[in-house]
Design a protein that fits this description.
- A hairpin with a 2-residue loop joins strand 16 and strand 17.
- The strands form four sheets. An eight-stranded mixed beta sheet has the order 12-13-16-17-11-18-10-19. It has a six-stranded mixed beta sheet with strand order 2-3-1-4-5-6, sandwiched between helices. It has a four-stranded antiparallel beta sheet with strand order 8-9-7-20.
- By secondary structure, the chain is an alpha/beta fold.
- The chain folds into two domains: 12-285, no CATH class; 292-476, no CATH class.
- It has 14 helices and 20 strands.
- It has helices at 32-36, 52-61, 84-99, 123-135, 153-158, 173-189, 217-231, 264-280, 292-299, 325-333, 346-355, 431-434, 454-458, 497-500; strands spanning 12-19, 39-42, 67-75, 104-110, 141-145, 161-164, 194-201, 235-241, 254-261, 306-309, 339-344, 360-365, 377-387, 390-392, 402-404, 408-413, 416-421, 445-448, 463-466, 502-505.
Length: 506
């Protein structure tokens, strides 16, 4: 492993944070065990990281005159809200390390921006402000966020600079870490004085039409913003924010963060210009949807692979992954077609492990973890393969790290193949299916449960249907029953920009 710079004599830069995305419509409570299945590092363990946002931060500090002072870094696949005990324990460890640091010069925080605990609606704002209260107002705090962030006034006011990832699907956590550290070095070494302005409006939409690649409206806005940043010498950083719509907090919305060198008026004008553009294109973000029945019937007439995108059950958005709504329709309408899906069901997974390969079993599958979205299906299946559920991510946020589905089984009912796992995991490049040595091109119908990352593996498939099913990560926010958000698009279609605009600055 690479050994990162442990310092010279110009002072300490603290690094640490919590990086995960929460879903308040899911019952999937996150505990420290969730983080330990992905990334949980304390103190010098962090210095071994060479990938992801932390790896990027560390690499850009190598060779500097500053000492890297690690605290705690924890990240995991999205889920429901975070258990208070888990957050308070991690927070206390981070704060204690910072309190005890000698000659502290700055703080680097790799965060997400959409984390919620049982009692705190803005984890990132709480953590940043707690650190600010310890270190005072004269030391910089530089924060990196996922672009799917709920950026709050508390976050803006207590940070020196906030930079968001620029790509979705997420290909640039490492590069964003580099950008964050480089900006921090400019602040410390060149006396840069960052002024940050954030404007946003209550546009709540799924990720379906929000790739930063191709011809999506989000991609076009991002390209225009980055061209502005390239051409405008006043801009230190620009970030386009697509808020995570699956939390339920006040004043949610998407918009633009602009950072300049000590010129808040220029930051304001540029931010407002691009946020207005985002608002004007809001109708373009609503996707075309199909019922599972219509999608399967239409797909039966196609001569090539068919992709059924059940994004309402996306583990990468905090859902459990235990929906069988689409599976039921495949059983009804296409029982003889070779099909593949994934269902999280720890009860069935344990039953399969106990019985062993080759056995036949009657199972009650699905909707046994988060029961609010549907009913299980009773089927007779054959157990084809059993694994420990471990796989290696090939790219993305957790590139080269181990994913853990827990004890898992591949079962079949006729030509329909079902991967049954104990835990839900983030879908990136279909590593879960590939860990069972499956030939994905051999399946007529493939069910994926993510809103965007399927394009990594299935860019060649032309027959793609976005399904309108029930779940905590629906493809349209029209289906969400918010308790704190009352005014937002697409609930209201006649909103005016000037009436819903929010503006924050530091």
């Amino acid at each position: 492993m690479k050994k990162h710079n442990m310092g010279n004599n110009s002072g300490n830069i603290a690094i640490g944070g919590i990086l995960t995305e929460c879903n308040e419509f899911s019952i999937n409570l996150m505990t420290k065990e969730n983080f330990k299945r992905y990334e949980y590092y304390e103190k010098n363990e962090i210095l071994n990281l060479t990938s992801g946002v932390v790896g990027g931060m560390l690499s850009a500090l190598d060779g500097s005159s500053f000492n890297i002072s690690p605290t705690v870094f924890a990240s995991c696949s999205p889920g429901g809200v975070i258990e208070d005990k888990c957050y308070f324990d991690i927070k206390e460890k981070i704060l204690d390390e910072i309190k005890n640091m000698q000659n502290l010069k700055a703080v680097l925080l790799p965060l997400h921006g959409a984390a919620v605990t049982e009692s705190i609606g803005d984890l990132e704002g709480d953590l940043i402000s707690s650190i600010r209260n310890i270190i005072g107002n004269d030391k910089p705090i530089v924060v990196t966020l996922d672009l799917h962030a709920h950026v709050t006034q508390e976050m803006i006011e207590n940070s020196s600079a906030i930079l968001a990832w620029e790509q979705y699907p997420h290909l640039d956590p490492y590069e964003t870490g580099v950008r964050g550290s480089k900006l921090l070095r400019e602040i410390l070494e060149k006396n840069i004085k960052p002024k940050m302005y954030f404007s946003k409006t209550p546009i709540l939409h799924s990720a379906i039409n929000a790739s930063t690649f191709g011809q999506t409206p989000f991609a076009e806005i991002m390209r225009d913003l980055k061209q502005e940043e390239k051409n405008n010498p006043h801009i230190l950083s620009s970030s386009l924010i697509h808020v995570d719509p699956y939390i339920d907090q006040n004043n949610m919305g998407g918009g633009v963060i602009i950072i300049t060198n000590n010129d808040i008026e220029k930051a304001k004008n540029i931010s407002l210009k691009f946020t207005k553009n985002y608002w004007d294109r809001r109708f373009e973000f609503e996707p075309k949807l199909y019922s599972p029945q219509d999608a399967i019937r239409d797909g039966l007439d196609k001569n090539s692979n068919v992709l059924l995108v059940e994004t309402a059950d996306a583990c990468g958005g905090g859902a459990v992954g235990d929906s069988v709504q689409t599976l039921k329709e495949l059983l009804n309408l296409a029982p003889n077609e070779k099909s593949l899906t994934h269902v999280v069901d720890p009860i069935v997974a344990a039953q399969c492990v106990e019985l062993g390969v080759g056995k036949e079993i009657k199972i009650l599958l699905g909707h046994q973890v988060d029961k609010q979205w549907g009913d299980p299906v009773e089927i007779n299946v054959k157990i084809e393969k059993i694994t420990d559920g471990k796989f290696i991510y090939n790219g993305g946020i957790w590139d080269k790290t181990i994913g853990e589905m827990g004890p898992s089984a591949l079962v079949t009912i006729g030509n329909i193949h079902i991967l049954v796992s104990s835990f839900g995991t983030y879908e990136w490049n279909c590593e879960q299916f590939l860990s069972f040595d499956l030939r994905l091109d051999k399946y007529k119908f493939l069910v994926v449960k993510n809103p965007m990352n399927y394009k990594n593996t299935f860019s060649h498939i032309k027959n793609i249907y976005i399904l309108d099913t029930a779940g905590p990560t629906p493809p349209t926010c029209k289906h969400l029953k918010f308790k704190k958000m009352f005014t937002y698009f697409p609930k209201q279609l006649d909103l005016k920009f000037e009436d819903v605009l929010l503006e924050y600055n530091n």
